[in-house]
Amino acid sequence: MVRAKKLLVMALSLRNHTTQVSETDAMIEELNKQTRLSMPNTKAIV
Question: Is this structure's pTM higher than 0.90?
Answer without folding.
Answer: no
